[in-house]
Amino acid sequence: MEKDRKLKLKGISRRTFIKYAGTAAAAAGTGFFHNIAVGKVPEVKIGHINPLSGPLAITASHVVAGTKLGVDEINAKGGIKSLGGAKLTVIDADSQGKPEIGMAEAEKLIQAGCIALVGAFQSSVTLTASEVAQRFRTPFLCTIGIADEITQRGYEYVFRLEQSASRGAEDYDEAIAWLEKKTGEPIRTSVNIHENTLFGVSMAGFLRKALGKHSKLNIIKEISYPHTTKDLTSEIIQIKGLNPDIITPTSYEQDGMLMTRTLYEQRVDLKACIACCSAGHFGEHIIRPLGNLQEYICIVNAFVNPKHPRYNEIKQKFESKNKIIWNVYSAHGYDAVQVIADALERAGTTEKDKLRDAISKTNKVIGTILCDPPAIRFGSDGQNVSAKFGLIQCLGQKDTVIWPEAIKERDPVFPVPKWKDRKI
Fold it and tell me: Is-contact 118 47, C-beta < 8 A?
């Protein structure tokens, strides 16, 4: 009787409900039910988890801005057409850079009706937040976060756009071999200096395994430090005494800049600083405060795709709107939205299981991040198998692609000038 009462309040008799419920499946096959049940979706909520406060907030803001540019573009073009023009809505959540908060925020976003989650910048936060997504059978698209474990847990609802740590280390080895051959300058010894969270530790481990397959580089010392450190003097003095050809840092933003300043203060001359997947060694937000101290710094990292057919258009639109530079972080946010929107169009529904299946079959979204081949495709483990790291060097106060050859913008400067020969 209670069910009868609720149906009548909605203007539907029990007899009418039973009559049409029995033909719902057939109607779906003709598209009739699809137009009624799916075509009237007013909005599609996407949850976005990032460290919006704390030391990584500035960098994470680029991811958020890229995500929202992607949403604005899709909505301006009519929304998700297979859902009757449903608009995308992004709900932001602040992880504060803490795994336990990222986990709690993921659950809140899902309870708020988000059909997919994007995030979470740090590997440690991504691991906990994506665990929640898996439990609630909600697609999770990792933008920034390189720990291999993210896509090695057998979670079918977790996907990643960025390169994994192990494959990134392999790209590093390949890039060093290319640089030595290109310049004729031997690169044989390095000190791996890294912050001590899952990010830096996992990257160091994969470098140990990867180096030597293409290059002749040998890590003669590993130095670990707390990512919240305010002083790297003793670590840099230790490097100076070891006199390696290069150093291989993996850092976050503030500790990376501190490292570069300390290298200058201690006048540590290297053939180059060639970072590996390090947030503190590239980007306008690093170049601006460091100025000429950042000149010639190299990094093997995910990067924007300068060959993307809409590169100049997207870059101009993003920078005009946000007053910040289009970079790899914003590109990851933008691409995440394109993947989700493309999957929604093909799925024709907001049902999470079907959306997950559609994401797994992505093959036509051309990455604004560096991909080889350019179309984003996910393997059975959810990893973007097209993701590729490039070798980037700050030249003329601009991050510039110098490898792979197919997309390079300039030739490398290597070895770099000594500190005394620079205009600092």
Answer: yes
Same domain, 159 and 172: no
Question: In which domain, by residue range, is 32 found?
Answer: 2-38
- Residue 152: exposure state from Cβ atoms within 10 A (0-12, 13-18, ≥19): middle
Q: Tokens 């000190």 map to which residue?
A: 191
User: Which amino acid does the sequence have at 123?
Assistant: S
| pTM given for the model | 0.80
- For helices 57-76 and 311-322, give the axis angle rounded to 10 degrees: 110
Tell me the average confidence (pLDDT) per consecutive run of 10 residues in the chain, 424 residues long: 37 36 35 40 92 90 96 97 96 96 98 97 94 98 91 97 93 98 98 91 93 97 96 98 98 95 98 95 92 98 90 96 92 97 97 98 94 93 95 96 89 97 91
In a domain, 51, yes or no: yes
Helix (H) or strand (E) holding 400: strand 399-403
Residues of the chain by 3-state class (helix, strand, coil), percent to 5: 45, 20, 35
Distance in angstroms (rounded) separating the CA atoms of residues 229 and 239: 17
CA distance to 141, 279, 287, 330, per residue, from 314 (Å): 21, 23, 22, 11
Q: What's the pLDDT at 40?
A: 58
Q: What is the crossing angle of helices 198-210 and 123-135, to 10°? A: 100
The closest alpha carbon to 367, from 354, 385, 348, belongs to 385
Give burial (CB, 10 Å; 0-12/13-18/19+) of 29: exposed
Cβ neighbours around 363 below 10 Å, total: 11
205 in any annotated domain? yes
DSSP states along 60-102? HHHHHHHHHHHHHHHHHTTSBGGGTSBEEEEEEEE-TT-HHHH
Q: Is 386:297 a contact under the CB 8 Å cutoff?
A: no
Residues linked to residue 160 through DSSP beta bridges, in sequence order: 142, 383
Write out the two tokens for 80. 């998700």
